[in-house]
Amino acid sequence: MITIGENSTGDMRDVETITRTLRDAGRAVERGDPDGVAAMFAPGGDTTIFDFLAPGVTAVEDIRRNVADMAEAAVGEITCTYPKVTVRMLSPDIGYSLSYTEIDITTEDGTRTHVHAAVTDIWQRIDGRWLCVHEHSSLPVDVASAKAQLLQPI
Description:
Elements: H1 12-31, H2 34-38, E1 48-50, H3 60-73, E2 79-91, E3 94-106, E4 112-126, E5 129-138, E6 141-142, E7 147-148
Parallel strand pairs: 1-5
Antiparallel strand pairs: 2-3, 3-4, 4-5, 6-7
């Protein structure tokens, strides 16, 4: 079993680049910068995304809109961190990352939402840059109630 935050494999420069790219995207979420978040993804229609923040989010343009909407709804700061990341290289140009992310936002109506999520990204080196070509985010779910457990640490 892989322990998230440990057991990365491959060239450590690639591991560090992918980890830094994820964390840069988190800082872009905090700034409300849709283009900064989109920068981690492959351009065009070559990226598929399954995002927990909004049903039907499947493309980079959806992520841009989602980040802009979140920034507009926020009162005060948004935090988005990747406290644990594991990267596994499958070849010199393909790898995947497993990570935990935490997002904290307060909206205009005073609602504070804190989310713990698990994220799996597939990375491809394209024109010398590591870019995400597929992302899947998930939340812990209480099967009995069929409700997401947003505060459940992963």
